Amino acid sequence: MTIDDQLKQQLDNFRRDFDLLKSEIAKVIVGQHEILDDMLISLIAGGHVLLEGVPGLGKTLTVRTLAEALHLDFHRIQFTPDLMPADLIGTQVIVESPDGRKGFEFQRGPLFANVLLADEINRATPKTQSALLEAMQEHSVTVAGTTHQLAEPFFVMATQNPLEMEGTYPLPEAQLDRFFCKLLVKYPTVSDLETILDRTTESIHPRAEAVMTGERILEMSALARLIPIASDVRRYGIAMVVATHPEHELAAEATKKYVRYGASPRGLQSLILGAKIRAILDNRYHVAREDLRCMATPVLRHRLILNFEGQAEGISADDVIAKIIADVAEDSLAAA
User: Fold this and answer.
1) For residue 151, how many other CB atoms are within 10 A of its CB?
2) Pairing, β 155-160 against β 181-184
3) Domains, in order of start, for the chain
4) What CDD domains has UniProt attached to this entry (predicted)?
5) Edge-first strand listing for the sheet containing 181-184
6) How many whole angstroms separate alpha carbon 208 and alpha carbon 46?
7) Most buried residue, 26, 119, 203, 264, by CB count within 10 Å?
8) Are 229 and 287 in contact (CB under 8 A)?
9) Is 298:45 a contact under the CB 8 Å cutoff?
10) What is the DSSP string of 266-277?
């Protein structure tokens, strides 16, 4: 078997395992196919996900089901206005040794898990929200000058209610940028509602079984990074990101009019990684421009900060991204 044959077999196994994991989650979660795809892409890419939707749409159940299907350590934190950073990370406590000596010992908080559900994250104060920053980026936390590494894989799934609801705090921009993608959970269709009733009001309640390990997720993540991307396709991705910056010469007209701040380099990294995984799922061994366009909205929507005019006119980040996709030429940076 040649190297190419080995890689092809590995990618076939990648798609098989992806479909297996998605199917297991779908035993419990009805519909929401795009949400599940993007959530699993984020997981494999090593990123974190922000789920937004009104209460009752199954956001928490989706995350819990994912943890069950992965056979990983799972913790849930219910964010409330009185939640403190130490409630997440842990704290130093005084312990007494058998010989009577007293000293400090670090007692780990619920942050130490493979899959962390930060439920209704925008109901906590910005101080508590920011406690996740180091953990999400560095996969470690520092307490009293000592750094504690988190177990791999480490995956944060945060849910939030729309900002116009009472008792919510907007997430800081630095916090938002650490999420690989932001997914909007929509209301189920009529047929999905019928299926939900069948599954929740009858005597049989489906549950997801563990079908994959954390080690396999890490293997899939490493494999995805091997997918090549042509230089012209990569420049197209760069052009899409710089088009979100109102001060850049390649900025789209909608960006100049409605955007205050655009996506960061971290957004570009997420766009490329997501496109590589999307290419594998579409049975291709290279990244196409369509992969970038497919990932642009979930990866960039939370990284665009609209100005006052955009907010006043009711423009959404999705509207701006759609115009950017339409306006950016495939050879925008061909001469760069």
Assistant:
1) 12
2) unpaired
3) 10-83+114-219 (3.40.50.300), 228-327 (1.10.8.80)
4) AAA
5) 74-78, 115-119, 155-160, 49-52, 181-184
6) 22
7) 119
8) yes
9) no
10) HHHHHHHHHHHH
DSSP sequence for 69-111 = HHT--EEEEE--TT--HHHHHEEEEEEE-TTS-EEEEEEE-TT
Confidence (pLDDT) at 335: 47
Handedness of CA 139, 28, 273, 280 (dihedral sign): positive
The helix (H) or strand (E) run that includes residue 156 is strand 155-160
265 preceded by a cis bond (ω within 30 of 0): no
pLDDT band at 49 (very low <50, low <70, confident <90, very high): very high
Q: What is the mean pLDDT of residues 104-112?
A: 81
5, burial (CB in 10 Å: exposed 0-12, middle 13-18, buried 19+): exposed
Q: Which amino acid is at 200?
A: T
With CA atoms as reference, report the closest residue to 121 among 82, 87, 77. 77
Residues 128-155 have pLDDT tens digits of 887 787 788 888 888 777 788 888 888 8
